[in-house]
Amino acid sequence: MTTALIVIDVQNDFCPGGALAVPGGDEIIDGINGLMADASAVILTQDWHPAGHSSFASSHEGRAPYELTDMPYGPQVLWPDHCIQGSPGAGFHTRLDVDRADMIIRKGYNPAIDSYSALFENDHVTPTGLEGYLRTRGISELLMVGLALDFCVNFSAVDAAKQGFRVTVREDLCRAIDLDGSLDAARSGMRDAGVTLI
């Protein structure tokens, strides 16, 4: 069985000092680098928002970061401006071994819709192209790590399981935001979808 390592959003803005820092986000990097040599394929995802993205609180007058709003595709957390295309914050953390990547998937570049998952935008319909790449490579098993466990890792893992991949998430190589119970909900949702948490 061929296994791909999917490294989710290990970017400067999600690490300490970044615009949307996940606590301890940089603590997982050495462990992730250590997994790369044994993977059949290494795929990195990169949040890649245009300035003024609709998921930014600053794009909604009178709204604050971390408030919830309704978008045409469903509920949406409003985030601080982060991972703006070409900005230092959107770059991968300097310690991440990006040279090992077979593919980089950029997501969230459509200004009208957010994209947590490595496989689909938040409408759960528009694909990123990752599934097709994995299928053509003959990859059926995925190991997921990265940031943040309760958002982009969670959505990616659930979507991949729904598409028939065998998915394992290494919780020790993820960190979470844990916004209003989002971590417990994510763990429950991943298990219900058939994702293995280790």
Structure overview:
The chain is an alpha/beta fold and 198 residues long. Helix content is 20%, strand content 23%. The chain has four helices and eight strands. The protein has helices spanning 29-36, 130-136, 149-162, 182-192; strands spanning 3-8, 41-47, 68-71, 74-77, 103-107, 141-147, 166-175, 196-197. The chain has a six-stranded parallel beta sheet with strand order 5-2-1-6-7-8. The chain has a two-stranded antiparallel ribbon with strand order 3-4. Helix 3 (149-162) links the parallel strand 6 (141-147) and strand 7. The protein is globular and about 50 Å long. The two termini are 19 Å apart. The mean pLDDT is 97.
Question: Average pLDDT, to the nearest integer?
Answer: 97
Tell me, briefly, the overall form.
Answer: globular
Helix-and-strand structural type: alpha/beta
Quaternary structure classification: single chain
Strand content: 15-25%
Give the helices and strands as they follow along the chain. Answer: EHEEEEHEHEHE
- Poorly predicted ranges (pLDDT <50, ≥5 residues)? none
- Major β-sheet strand ordering: 5-2-1-6-7-8
What gyration radius follows from the Cα positions, in whole Å? 16 Å
Share in helix: 10-25%
The rounded distance between the terminal residues' Cα atoms is: 19 Å
